[in-house]
Amino acid sequence: MELIRISTAGSVDDGKSTLIGRLLFDSHALLEDQIENILKASKKKNFEGIDYSLFTDGLRDERTQGITIDVAHLYFSSPYHKYIIADTPGHVQYTRNMITGMSNADIALILIDIKKGLNEQVKRHIFIAHLLKIPKLIFCVNKMDLASYQEESFLKIVKEFNLMNNLLDLREFTFIPISATNGANVVSISSKMPWYKGKSIIQEIDEFEIVETNKNISKRMPIQCVINSPIGEATYRGYAGMLTSGSFKVGEEIIVLPTAIKATIKSIIQNGINIQEAETGSSIAIELDREIDISRGDMIAGITLLPINSNEITTTICWMHEQPLSILKKYILKIGTKETQCIVSNIISKYNNDFDQIILAPKEAGMNEIATISIKTANPIHFDKYVSNKNTGRFILIDPVSNDTVAAGIIE
Amino acid sequence: MNYLDQLEAESIYIIREAYGQFNKPVILFSGGKDSILVTHLAMKAFLPGKLSLPVMHIDTGHNFPETIEFRDDFINKYQLNLIVGSVQESIDQNKAKESAGKSNSRNRIQSITLLDTIEKHKIDCALGGGRRDEEKARAKERFFSHRDAFGQWNPRGQRPEIWNLYNGRYNEGEHFRVFPISNWTELDVWRYIKRENIQLPSLYFSHEREVIFRDNSWIPVSEFIRISEDEKIIKKTIRFRTLGDITITGGIESTASTIDEIITELAEFKRGERGNRSDDKTSDNSMEDRKKEGYF
Asked: Given CB atoms, is A281 within the 8 Å cutoff of chain B?
């Protein structure tokens, strides 16, 4: 069985936490004491029955305000997959926490309130899902009960999305009409919407399969640390890291970057055991046939399909900090295990709040805005385009004064 | 890849990141299954080399004797460096004061000793066995969780944590808590313990013990608790699902004496793991409140 990571998205009060609570409740994934606690907490709020959102809103401030502030992680299994769900906040102020949850997702459940349609925040989340290239998007048109379960209202939302999608050109998505509160089309198909011929949410996610796009393509392993160990008279020297794409075999020729020195793999150790071949996603240690100066931040790559080497990149970023992006300031760029100083040399463009227009040469980019910028790094970096290799085509920016993570970027 | 292999690879990646990014990382070790698991994974992460990270035990003085015995054997067997922070010392130095209640609990004041020990040894990263499925405040925690100069967690202002790019940068006096097994569930932990044949304290397996019934669970009789007249001491066949101080850790009635039997038992359980921990029952937000103070 494989792990599937799911993230919710959508505007504030669209019912994300309620949906997840309902999904867990209807799949019998909750424990008796959890249900008892939630019943008590619901009663305290004068809520009739179970307030499903309380299963994920665990912080005091979240419960008193009735909103989600930060990502909650929940775990459950079906006969088909093991799931990790990130329930994310919809409030615009906490978009960075939504991105935290969505950044690792295989599936995004994007909620749309039937009464509100595609507002600015939903559009922002759809755009971010598009930017991150989440493999599968499920649009859950929620609160169908408030629209008397009518098909026309549902189709209106689909039409609204199609208009937006003219620009995005998303292909892998599904629309499901649901009522999270009533559990309609969440786990079981609701009889209230006979016009809907599709699947429930749980059916959709159970049928999902990860397509390993990174397999057998470019080989990349950012070095995390060096392991030294005496073996009799000699010393073992292994380069530890996670193989983020491709595979490596003992005896294979590789290239060490940035020095561009070639060497042959002498051994691969995984969990203390010698293996002949390592697959994508393994945490391993690689020993080479010759002495080379390698340290954290370097990369071992296959000798074909080399990454791009440059100190200038063009990238689309989401700015996540209250203090807007400044072209006068130095930032730290972190890509893989490498950190280097950088400056933003140019803000090329940014999207308007409805994500249907591009503003050229804006003066600044503020919190939650998505902009295309040029970055100049102090040292050259090795990277791929995000479309060809996700792991080595993404980075974060850190403010060296506050140490806050201020932006997430993908390289074009 | 099988999900246990995926979880293992993720945890090792995070442990190596902590090692690569911090000056003095340590592993928080309580003698419980989760901290044993983190130490096991950390040893694996640096094979064939030796684990250079010390393990740190915050000793409340209210231990199960079995836990301390296990700790010492474990340290000896794997030749690890042990740092001990003593709650008794904090009390003697008037830095901490014991609560007056029946359980005589030192649970809350151990945060003071923990932060003191972190400061004393200039530790900038404490790796812990916290898991997100344990408790609703822990469900909100990052892998790399920042603590300010007072050791406080700020749940409303956590740094975003995007992809697998962990930002462990901090200013003078601040530190990080890193949770490599955040994504493991209780069942995952047990299945992995079985797969790897990891040794655990005997307390996890069913045994006979003198207990009293308090706050809906079986609290072991020890020299540290105050037993009132209406509380009756009886013998019960129990085991512990989590391990904390002997004063607050309730056992569950169980005959599960092997890992397989525990896994079977867990799959049928209808109540959460920490339901027998009286430290979690003082209020609905007790974990969040303690974490804000620096609790692990």
From this structure: yes
Predicted complex ipTM exceeds 0.90: yes
Which amino acid is it at A397?
Answer: L
Residue in B20, B49, B164 nearest the CB of A296: B20
Q: Look up the CATH superfamily of A308-411.
A: Translation factors (2.40.30.10)
How many Å lie between the alpha carbon of B27 and the closest alpha carbon of chain A?
18
pLDDT at B270 over 80: no
- Report residue A151 CA to chain centroid gap: 32
For residue A203, pLDDT beyond 70:
yes
A402 to chain B, minimum CA–CA distance in Å? 8
SS3 of residue B251 by DSSP = strand
pLDDT at B291: 81
Residues of chain A with CATH 2.40.30.10: 220-302, 308-411
User: What are the residue ranges of CATH 3.40.50.300 in chain A?
Assistant: 3-206
User: Is the domain of B181 the same as that of B205?
Assistant: no
- Name the token pair of A238: 């292994």
Q: Could you give the maximum distance between any two Cα atoms of chain A, in Å?
A: 79
Angle at B290 between CA B289 and CA B291, to 5 degrees: 90
φ and ψ at B41, to 5 degrees?
A: -65, -40
Q: How far is it, in rounded angstroms, from Cα A99 to Cα A204?
A: 23
B160 to chain A, minimum CA–CA distance in Å?
6
The class that CATH gives domain A3-206 is alpha beta
Task: Kindly determine whether residue B17 and residue A337, on different chains, have CB atoms separated by under 8 Å.
Answer: yes
Which residues, 6+ apart, have CB-to-CB distance to A121 below 8 Å?
A10, A11, A12, A90, A92
Looking at residue B292, its pLDDT comes to 82
3 state SS for A134-167 = CCEEEEEEECHHHHCCCHHHHHHHHHHHHHHHHH
Instruction: With beta carbons under 8 A apart, name residues in chain A contacting B125.
Output: none
How many of the other CB atoms lie within 10 Å of CB of B99? Answer: 12
Please tell me the predicted confidence (pLDDT) of residue B281: 63
Interface test with A, best of B6, B40, B43, B47 (most A CBs within 10 A): B47
Cα–Cα distances in angstroms (integers) from residue B292 to residues A231, A348, B108, B296, in the given order: 46, 42, 12, 10
Same domain as B217, residue B84: no
Question: Is the dihedral angle over the CA atoms A33, A35, A38, A42 positive or is it negative?
Answer: negative
CATH classification of A220-302 is 2.40.30.10, yes or no? Answer: yes
Q: Are residues B73 and B180 in the same domain?
A: yes
Q: What's the domain count of chain B?
A: 2
A 10 A CB-CB count for A388 gives: 17
Please, what sign has the CA dihedral across residues B148, A64, A94, A363? negative
Whole domain around residue B163: which residue ranges? 3-185+284-292
Are residues B16 and B142 part of one domain? yes
Hey, are the CB atoms on B165 and A269 less than 8 Å from each other? no
* Same domain assignment for residues B97 and B34: yes
Residues B174 and B63 in one domain: yes
Q: How far is CA B289 from CA A113, B45, B91, B153, in A?
A: 34, 33, 21, 9
Kindly state the average pLDDT of the residues A323-349: 96
pLDDT at A301: 98
pLDDT at A31: 85
DSSP state of B71: H
Residues B178, B255: one domain? no
d(CA A5, CA B3): 12
* Helix spans in A139-290 (H): 151-168, 201-206
